[in-house]
Amino acid sequence: MAALLSQSDKFFDILSPTRNLGETIFRFKCACCQEWHEGMPGFSADAPLYFYSIPAGERDSRCALDADTCIVDDAH
After folding, report:
1. Taking the C-alpha atoms of 13, 14, 17 and 22 in order, what is their torsion angle to the nearest 10 degrees?
2. Which of 14, 43, 51, 74 is the 20 to 30 A CA-CA neighbour of 6?
3. Pairing mode, if any, of strands 12-15 and 25-29?
4. Local confidence pLDDT in tens for the 76 residues of the chain
5. Are 2 and 27 in contact (CB under 8 A)?
6. d(CA 34, CA 16)
């Protein structure tokens, strides 16, 4: 797939071994800063999808959200 994209359109790349024999490097282009980063990106979300199904005007009264927990309507 990467071969079908021009260099400017690529969002990932697998580089040839440069550090140790047989080691390959995965790199990706960050959608936020447009920089290339080496290693696997971390994937996370600010809240679970269910949180966003609650209307924005009701979230403060129906949801408790912190870094580890999301409680909706005292049940989820």
Report:
1. 170
2. 43
3. antiparallel
4. 344 444 455 655 665 545 555 566 788 888 788 888 888 777 778 899 999 999 999 999 999 999 889 999 998 6
5. no
6. 22
Q: Which stretch of DSSP H or E encloses residue 61?
A: helix 59-62
Number of other CB atoms surrounding residue 22 within 10 Å: 6
Task: Tell me the residue length of the chain.
Answer: 76
Q: pTM score, two decimals? A: 0.46
Q: Tell me the residue type at 69.
A: T
Structure-token pair, residue 71: 């409680």
For residues 1 and 39, what is the distance between their CA atoms, to the nearest angstrom?
19
Per-residue model confidence (pLDDT) at position 15 = 58
